[in-house]
């Protein structure tokens, strides 16, 4: 992958969902034609461990057959409320709020990493690094480690280290923190009226720990932090990624949006506008979790913007290198 075509540069910036439990024509098109860099699995894609493993092998083989880097294959396996893999085939955990000791985090990460590795999944969209303050009806209350930033930081760092020691890329979420949020961004775009100092003192503490632990990826929230950027939600904001996360906090790893199909983004922003902002914000991967025309539109838009705009092309080359470096580190990418 020394000479990157415009098609490859565009496709590697996408992580997408699909329908079906086996390799099919849609997956063939996504990999061979759009050259997508990653896939994300949901309950609709999951049957037995053997079937999932075959699906992942077939997808990786399709990428290799066309001279493409290995695919990132991700899943949301936080434990508890959000866990795509379930009994009787997989170990179920009570979830982050139920963890009482570091040993609990080690056990969760060790077992989960082993089960993911066995089926060919190489990335977990976890841990949740949000902090839910006491006294508010946080939308994240049932998914967070707790209300103490230092405790969340410690548990999150433990999960990251245990995952990554076992070859599973961890993705910390949802930067810069949605624990204070009471409106569900799956449904609408929440505004959070908070300044940078308050975020720094509380919400950012676990994310700093994750950066120090070398977390493979960061996922951005679909929340608009009006004290940081009054216009764009974090997932589309240059102030949040290029400035806060990369420049101020020094994170140089892979950054991805949350699902651009969520209600916080649609219908407020069409896919072309969202992609333009992803590129401007120095976000590496656009996550589009449902089959549909947006995936093709996004790929075409990225290719066009990287071709037409020299500044975005330079940012895009750096972004591609971050993605390929991650793949080399974890997936023996060519």
UniProtKB/TrEMBL annotation:
The organism's place on the tree of life at top rank: Bacteria
Gene Ontology molecular functions: beta-N-acetylhexosaminidase activity
Domain Glycoside hydrolase family 3 N-terminal: 11-297
One Pfam family named in its UniProt record: Glyco_hydro_3
Cited PROSITE patterns: GLYCOSYL_HYDROL_F3
Keywords, in A-Z order: Glycosidase, Hydrolase
InterPro entries, sorted: GH, Glyco_hydro_3_AS, Glyco_hydro_3_N, Glyco_hydro_3_N_sf, NagZ_Beta-hexosaminidase
EC number, as in UniProt: 3.2.1.52
Catalytic reactions of this protein: Hydrolysis of terminal non-reducing N-acetyl-D-hexosamine residues in N-acetyl-beta-D-hexosaminides
GO biological process, one term: carbohydrate metabolic process
Transmembrane segments: none
EC class name: hydrolase
PANTHER family cross-referenced by the UniProt entry: BETA-HEXOSAMINIDASE, BETA-HEXOSAMINIDASE-RELATED
Family: Belongs to the glycosyl hydrolase 3 family.
Protein name: beta-N-acetylhexosaminidase
Species this chain originates from: Desulfosarcina ovata subsp. ovata
């Amino acid at each position: 992958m020394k000479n990157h075509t415009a098609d490859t540069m565009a496709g590697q910036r996408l992580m997408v969902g699909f329908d079906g439990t086996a390799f099919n024509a849609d997956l063939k098109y996504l990999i061979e034609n759009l050259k997508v860099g990653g896939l994300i699995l949901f309950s609709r894609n999951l049957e037995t461990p053997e079937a999932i493993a075959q699906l992942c092998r077939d997808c990786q083989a399709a990428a290799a057959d066309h001279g493409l880097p290995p695919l990132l294959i991700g899943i949301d396996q936080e434990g508890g409320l959000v866990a795509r893999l379930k009994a009787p085939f997989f170990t179920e955990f009570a979830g982050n709020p139920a963890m009482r000791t570091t040993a609990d985090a080690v056990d969760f990460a060790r077992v989960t990493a082993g089960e993911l590795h066995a089926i060919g999944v190489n990335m977990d969209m976890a841990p949740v690094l949000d902090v839910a303050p006491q006294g508010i009806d946080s939308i994240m209350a049932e998914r967070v480690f707790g209300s103490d930033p230092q405790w969340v930081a410690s548990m999150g760092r433990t999960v990251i280290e245990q995952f990554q020691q076992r070859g599973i890329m961890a993705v910390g979420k949802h930067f810069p923190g949605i624990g204070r949020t009471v409106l569900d961004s799956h449904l609408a775009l929440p505004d959070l009226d908070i300044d940078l100092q308050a975020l720094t003192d509380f919400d950012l503490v676990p994310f700093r720990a994750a950066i120090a632990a070398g977390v493979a990826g960061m996922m951005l929230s679909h929340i608009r932090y009006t004290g940081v950027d009054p216009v764009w939600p974090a997932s589309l904001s240059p102030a949040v990624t290029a400035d806060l996360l990369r420049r101020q906090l020094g994170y140089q790893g892979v950054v991805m949006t949350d699902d651009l199909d969520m209600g916080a983004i649609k219908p407020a922003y069409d896919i072309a506008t969202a992609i333009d902002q992803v590129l401007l914000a120095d976000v590496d991967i656009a996550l589009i979790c449902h089959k549909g025309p947006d995936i093709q539109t996004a790929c075409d838009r990225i290719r066009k913007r990287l071709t037409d705009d020299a500044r975005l092309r330079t940012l895009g080359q750096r972004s591609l290198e971050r993605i390929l470096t991650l793949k080399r580190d974890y997936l023996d990418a060519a």
